[in-house]
């Protein structure tokens, strides 16, 4: 059977498309006609999540990191995903670029400057009184950035991804997130449970992608306003979103080889180029000094940020920062893990962890050392970076920062391109994964997914992002609105990810029992 015939025979899963379409339509209608009520519902859910389960978010973040370190160093790292005869589909470089850029989206471009400066000026009082603008505040600001953007998010993705990869490639189960749950009863979950789990994961990732799409849109719009004078209004946001959507839908339709791989390669090279530019033209010695001291401080205060909840003083800082981040990373984790699983066939678990957990995290450390160090130096030097963020908005931080560097107009353009490509890469991978989940194909091959389904999900996520942006107003900023959406999306996934991690560990530890890659055809069919 050729590819065209195979695609024509692929059918949409009505148990996914129908309920999700109804939910998305309800959100869109409510966002248009009752934006305040939409905000109130989101706020109530976020409050419940933080007040009752904030501790569980924090514990889960640390736990997943420990799981990945253990898998990397243990004997189980030698297990090959797909069996000894499986062949890799990507080179190490392409694998790294896709893992890096699909995992972080536009995040490090947005928060690489804004977050260190924010916590340098307004440090949370973790472990004692910390004075604004002090050296202690700088150390804490860097530690917070490392915690939020390096090992923990990739640990969540990697834990999910390796569990799904083992279930799909070694246990010969369908390419579904729910396949990981096989070991709970030693048989596949029933269709109802399978659909329910996939729907929850899909809702979470759609909310998470919409949140990142919203943040990136505001940043691009602000950049265009500062450089070209275009109005930074909600109308501009809508135009930017639709341009992004058209691009990532086209990329998704062209497939992994021509779409995601090409964009991720160019995206990573652009990241590296921007890092080198800031490092050379920035305060190089200060960056070295602050970076070295920050790493030592972070190692000395390894779990300070990831366990801080302020139950006595009642600070809400952790709600709007670490809990938000853990929620959005968790929202991504099942389907981001599924995508990482799809591209990991033929690699060992140790290789999986190195490429999807360790190296991207180290890249994040370097990114925040250079951009965070340079931005804190600017604030100390009196450039008014923090004041610009307060008067114009957090989304203006990047462009206020690079204004103090040579070739401002050209550099700004490159940063806007980097933001655009970052969003496209992340949305592309998620559109592909969601579309795979929405069909009855059981193979881990995105080529089998019809283009119309990719278009449907790409447009749906764009509408959610637009509604969330335009529903923000005097009560809540666009940035905080996207934070709320992400937390709402990640809250139900918190509990599923704990179950997934348990199942994944049990499968891998008992791999002689569950690994069918060396079994004969009859044994292979027992799990179908």
TrEMBL record:
Q: Which residues cross the membrane?
A: 16-33, 53-71, 92-114, 151-171, 192-216, 236-256, 268-290, 323-342, 354-376, 407-427, 455-473, 485-505
Q: InterPro entries given for it?
A: BCCT_transptr
Q: Which Pfam families match?
A: BCCT
Q: How does it sit in the membrane?
A: Multi-pass membrane protein
Cellular localization per UniProt? Cell membrane
- Asked whether the UniProt record includes Transmembrane among its keywords, one would answer yes
Q: Which UniProt keywords apply?
A: Cell membrane, Membrane, Transmembrane, Transmembrane helix, Transport
Family according to the record: Belongs to the BCCT transporter (TC 2.A.15) family.
Q: What is this protein called?
A: BCCT family transporter
């Amino acid at each position: 059977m050729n590819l065209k015939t195979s695609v024509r025979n692929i059918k949409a899963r009505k148990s996914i498309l129908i309920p999700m379409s109804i939910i998305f339509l309800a959100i869109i209608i409510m966002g248009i006609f009752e934006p305040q009520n939409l905000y109130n519902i989101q706020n109530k859910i976020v409050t419940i999540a933080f007040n009752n389960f904030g501790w569980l978010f924090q514990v889960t973040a640390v736990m997943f990191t420990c799981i990945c370190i253990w898998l990397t160093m243990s004997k189980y790292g030698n297990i090959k995903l797909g069996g000894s005869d499986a062949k890799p589909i990507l080179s190490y470089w392409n694998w790294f670029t896709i893992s890096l850029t699909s995992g972080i989206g536009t995040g490090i471009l947005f928060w690489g400057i804004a977050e260190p400066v924010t916590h340098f000026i307004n440090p949370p009082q973790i472990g004692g009184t910390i004075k604004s603008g002090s050296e202690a505040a700088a150390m804490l600001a860097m530690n917070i950035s490392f915690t939020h953007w390096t090992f923990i998010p990739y640990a969540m993705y990697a834990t999910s991804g390796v569990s799904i990869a083992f279930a799909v490639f070694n246990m010969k189960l369908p390419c579904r997130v729910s396949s990981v749950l096989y070991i709970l009863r030693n048989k596949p979950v029933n269709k109802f449970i399978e659909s329910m789990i996939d729907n929850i994961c899909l809702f979470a990732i759609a909310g998470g992608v919409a949140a990142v799409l919203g943040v990136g849109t505001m940043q691009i719009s602000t950049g265009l306003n500062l450089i070209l004078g275009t109005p930074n209004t909600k109308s501009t946001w809508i135009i930017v979103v639709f341009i992004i959507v058209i691009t990532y839908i086209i990329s998704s339709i062209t497939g992994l080889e021509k779409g995601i791989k090409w964009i991720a390669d160019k995206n990573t090279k652009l990241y590296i180029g921007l890092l080198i530019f800031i490092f050379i033209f920035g305060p190089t010695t200060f960056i070295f000094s602050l970076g070295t001291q920050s790493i030592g401080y972070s190692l000395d205060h390894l779990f300070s940020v990831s366990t801080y909840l302020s139950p006595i003083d009642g600070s809400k800082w952790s709600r709007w920062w670490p809990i938000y981040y853990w929620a959005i990373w968790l929202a991504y984790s099942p389907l981001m893990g599924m995508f990482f699983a799809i591209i990991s066939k033929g690699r060992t678990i140790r290789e999986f962890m190195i490429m999807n957990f360790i190296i991207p995290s180290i890249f994040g450390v370097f990114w925040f050392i250079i951009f965070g160090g340079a931005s804190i130096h600017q604030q100390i030097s009196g450039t008014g970076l923090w004041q610009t963020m307060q008067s114009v908005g957090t989304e203006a931080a990047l462009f206020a920062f690079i204004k103090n560097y040579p070739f401002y107009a050209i550099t700004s353009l490159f940063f806007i391109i980097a933001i655009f490509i970052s969003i496209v890469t992340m949305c592309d991978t998620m559109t592909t994964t969601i579309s795979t989940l929405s069909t009855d194909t059981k193979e881990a091959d995105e080529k089998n997914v019809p283009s119309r389904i990719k278009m449907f999900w790409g447009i749906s996520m764009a509408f959610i992002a637009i509604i969330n942006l335009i529903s923000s107003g005097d009560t809540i900023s666009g940035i905080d609105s996207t934070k709320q959406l992400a937390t709402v999306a990640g809250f139900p996934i918190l509990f599923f990810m704990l179950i997934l991690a348990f199942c994944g560990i049990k499968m891998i530890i008992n791999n002689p029992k569950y690994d069918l890659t060396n079994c004969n055809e009859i044994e292979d069919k027992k799990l179908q």
